Amino acid sequence: MSLFKARDWWSTILGEKEEFDQGCLCVADVDNSGSGQDKIIVGSYMGYLRIFNPHPVKPGEGIQPEDLLLEVQLREPILQVEVGKFVSGTEGLHLAVLHCRKLCVYAVSGTLGNVEHGNQYQIKLMYEHNLQRTACNMTYGPFGGVKGRDLICIQSMDGMLMLFEQESYAFGRFLPGFLLPGPLTYSSRTDSFITVSSCRQVESYKYQVLAFATDADERQEAEQQKLSSGKRVAVDWVLNIGEQALDICVVSFNQAVSSVFVLGERNFFCLKDNGQIRFMKKLDYSPSCFIPYCSVKEGTINTLVGNHSKMLNVYQDITLKWATQLPHVPVSVKVANLQDLKGVIVTLSDNGHLQCSYLGTDPSLFQAPRVESREINYEEFEAEMKELQKIIKEATKTQDILPKSEKHRDLIVTAEVSPDLDAESVTVQSRVTAQKPSLAVCVQAPLAVTCDQFVFDDLEPDSSETVVVSAFLKGNCSPSELEGSCVVSYNTPTGIPKVAQCNFRLPLRLVCSPAQPSKAANHKLTIDTNKPPVSFLTIFSDFVDPSSEDDQVNVLGFQFSTSSKTTLLASKTSQRYRIQSDQLEDLWLITKELILRLEEHFKKQNCKDFACTFSGAIPLQEYFELIDRHFELRLNAEKFQELLSERAVQFRAIERRLLTRFKDKTPAPLQHLDTLLEGTFREVIALADAAEENQANMFQAFTKLRSATHLLVTLISLWQKLSTDQVAILEATFLPLAEDTPELGWEEAVDAAISYLLRTCLSKSSKEQALSLSSQLSMPKDTSRLKKNITLFCDRLAKGGRLSFSTDSAAQQPAVMPGTVLNNTSHLEEECGEDFRVHKDLNECYGITFFRGNFVIFCISTFQ
């Protein structure tokens, strides 16, 4: 097999924004010149009819004005063009043009010109048929064995075959079991029509059977007619090919028997006259068109198959003989004789690229010049290599693989929250062309926004888009977080998908309002600082009355819209702040807001050593009550699910019994089945309402649990003065889920995470580290194990445990601390063997303990 580009002999582009399809191309001696040269007839969906007679001066030359014989615009779209003996009284060729609701037959004639402009061509309408049904395609041939003329058969969109005997309408027949029209052709050897139905079957219908069948126009009155007046349309033979067909063609050459070729979506078939398969070829591409033509080898047929990869393959039966590259995807292909050149391949694309080409290659006259031998200059090569490496390094820096800094990002998202709580403005700025950008605004439930999805048109360079959204509280519980995010996804001009995002914080005034402070409260927390107390008039100016005469406001009240009141007090004598409330979860937002505003206040004053600490008791018992409440609602949800499943099974069983009774021909009493059905239905509705109410309560309990968990993480981090990395580990341990799911709940996820930390970085001995964790998480029976692990976790931290995922932290703490004097190290040598060395020359002793594959070095003492 050889692969070359098709040699362009002549080509042109037809019109502007016109569309073409399979039946829009035909080649024949339409003007009856008798020279044996074909003309190219092209019709378009825009109604243009063009006839070409290419005469290139040299191969590959563009169209000349005299190559276009005729161009005329008809009033309707052209579905198909064919050339045949369609006019009675003459055996000359005429042009048949199929429109949606009309069939027109034209005579094409030319007049010799006396000037340099050449001959003149015109078409004359011989006759036309107005169609009662919308046409799809047509075929022609000597139906019934007539001599010297061709008849036309048109297939409509609703499955009717309309046959015309030239100027007159013959009859119409509906195809049985019709759904969608397929390709249609006529076999003169068997006098039958062959099509491919929507059942993916090749079907053959005899012309005689169609002629003697009941007329389609009288099909509604078939029951009143006698049996002798007509017969049903019966298929001659059927072959299931298992796929839709793109085209069908019947060929009969002198040296080969008559064959039916069918082009499918993934195969092309060659069938005998009786429907048996001669051969088939499985294609590894998506074909678009084909045409069989005569082969030089006796008993074989050549086939041209075009595909959507712009390739044209030549097959001899099933053997691929040649493959050539086309400049377009062909929707129709023909073989023509043009200007004494036989076998020219004519292809047409769907956008009007018409090309006449031939196979083969042109000889290349280029000869490579002789290379002069010279000595190699390694210094020049090395300098050139360094220059190329520098270019490659600069090019790799600009690739879209690593994230760019904020200054060099292609697209920037900024969110600005209005202090008046009326709206939030999100601006998207693009430095390059951003294709299909979409913006998502995300907030934590029960917070919501008026619109969370935005889709923009393509952003041009240095352009921006701004949207305004409003946030509000949706539900009867306070949120656990006031943070939100804006995410923009887009494509670069090179097709690379990218994401840009930014975070924002909603104001505290959105979920609470100023209120009178409360003296009594069930839960109290005290936050210590290393700086003098700050007046609330400075850091909580949005909650303090501006008309207040007191310059040193040290107490504030916060009333949440869905829960209790929270009070914030600042000590006048010490550096402490107290937060108190009747609900533990309500302490979280005020505590976090206090710490953030204090940090911002001292940051503005360039104070870098500000720190907050917590020295009180961690409120574990109150926290465990929230865990028990959430877990109880999860158990209730499972119970409701089981009860709903049982009642649904019962309801369907009663329905089946009632249906059996109703279908019984002998009436039988219902035996109170209808009463039982109604009662079961009410139970299902009541259980569904209870499950829905429990789901809402579980969401509220989970939100409260998240708030209390945030508070617990903050207190532990202030208590142990954890670093940023350690706080991240703590948050990942206690806050693994954004929401509960039936498959995975908060309790089992947190229990697994804490158990892992207790067996790794917080382990006391190697025995604990050797214990294996369960690889499958499931809902526990109770929360006793979880509460025990949380208590143990806090106890280990209080005793000096350190949160870390590094291997060194997993080692057992040494029994001998730095500064202890050891005069006898023989027992260490016996235990550790070669892993222990005494460096007397350095006057220091180092012990190397081998523990779980890691060497941990401790400085023990200095020799006296």
From TrEMBL:
| Keyword Chaperone in annotation | no
Give GO terms for biological process.
Answer: cilium assembly
Keyword Coiled coil applies? yes
Q: Which residues form a coiled coil?
A: 371-398
Q: Where is the PTHB1 hairpin domain?
A: 618-720
Q: Which keywords appear in this protein's UniProt record, sorted alphabetically?
A: Coiled coil
Q: Which residues form the PTHB1 GAE domain?
A: 425-504
Using the record's annotation, list all stretches that form the PTHB1 platform domain. 507-615
- Organism superkingdom: Eukaryota
InterPro entries, from UniProt?
Answer: PHTB1_GAE_dom, PHTB1_N_dom, PTHB1, PTHB1_CtH_dom, PTHB1_hp_dom, PTHB1_pf_dom
Q: Which residues form the PTHB1 C-terminal helix bundle domain?
A: 722-797
Which part of the chain is the PTHB1 N-terminal domain?
A: 1-363
Q: Give the signal peptide, or none.
A: none
| Cellular component GO terms, alphabetical | BBSome; membrane
Record-given protein name:
Bardet-Biedl syndrome 9
Annotated organism of origin = Calidris pygmaea
